[in-house]
Write a structure and sequence with these properties.
Shape: elongated
Radius of gyration: 21 Å
Distance between the termini: 20 Å
Number of helices: 7
Strand content: 15-25%
Oligomer: single chain
Structural class: alpha/beta
Order of helices and strands: EEHEEEEHEHEEHEHEHEHE
Largest sheet: 7 strands, parallel
Number of strands: 13
Length: 254
């Protein structure tokens, strides 16, 4: 069943007008017919099964048939990523969403390539958030991950609240497997540096903020690859990757 994400306030009604870009997508791209069922989500766990109906000439509405809430089975991973080039960050958010990352925090470091500010930063963040929404819809996640605005590394580290914290560092010899706790933590933060690596002052700050430095093996991974690798391993060890998928639609009916 096709999924679409709308603001929470629009899902409060029992009949939801399908307008603007969504209406155009329904009529011109998908060519949905009256009577077809769709799912409308708010990206925060609320799901509505709806029937598409005509609401006048060139107008459609979604009639809510049932509502329920779903919880994610992913292990919460907060990816703190040194800003790469624009297209790499977009790809990173798209694929990271598919892999179950719960929050993205782009950070400025001494060796970060792009520097975003003003309207350029705002437009870039809006685009990142649209990419996260689309990736959540495509991968059938009930939640859309949080995509934060770019901030300085120190600010993000000092406000990090995840229980377990890991940083990929090319000068570390301890493998990731040796650093993972046997009992699953409630959440994890993963910090990935820029292409040129962290400066010495930065890595000292990282460790003071409770991050365990680890190696991902003998090969040096690209900055956009390292985060995926860490997230995949964490989802396999502590989350839902490799486990049986859901049988049918599950959740608490409203």
């Amino acid at each position: 069943m096709r999924r679409f994400i709308l603001p929470s306030e629009k899902l409060e009604a029992e009949e939801i007008p399908l307008e603007g870009d969504l209406l155009h997508h329904f009529q011109k791209v998908l060519r949905l017919n009256s009577g077809e069922n769709i799912l409308l989500l708010n990206g925060c766990g609320l799901i509505c099964r709806c029937r598409v109906e005509l609401a006048g000439r060139n107008r459609l509405k979604a009639v809510v048939l049932e509502k329920w809430r779903e919880e994610e089975s992913v292990f919460p991973v907060h990816l703190i990523q040194a800003l790469p080039k624009a297209e790499r960050m977009e790809w990173l958010i798209q694929k990271g969403t598919e892999l179950g990352i719960s929050e993205f925090s782009p950070v400025n470091t001494k060796r970060s390539i792009p520097v975003l500010s003003g309207q350029r930063k705002d437009k870039r963040v809006q685009r990142w958030r649209r990419i996260a929404e689309e990736a959540s819809r495509q991968s059938e996640r009930p939640y859309v991950p949080v995509v934060n605005e770019p901030r300085d590394l120190a600010e993000v580290l000092l406000n990090c609240r995840e229980e377990y914290r890991l940083v990929c560092w090319e000068e570390e010899s301890r493998p990731l497997g040796a650093a993972l706790p046997d009992l699953s933590p409630s959440s994890a933060a993963v910090l990935v540096g820029p292409e040129g690596g962290f400066g010495q002052e930065e890595i000292e700050l990282v460790k003071k903020c409770g991050f365990h430095s680890v190696s991902l093996g003998p090969r040096i991974l690209r900055t956009e690859t390292a985060g995926f690798t860490m997230a995949t391993i964490l989802q396999y060890v502590y989350g839902d990757m490799g486990k049986s998928g859901p049988q049918g639609i599950k959740g608490k009916r409203i």
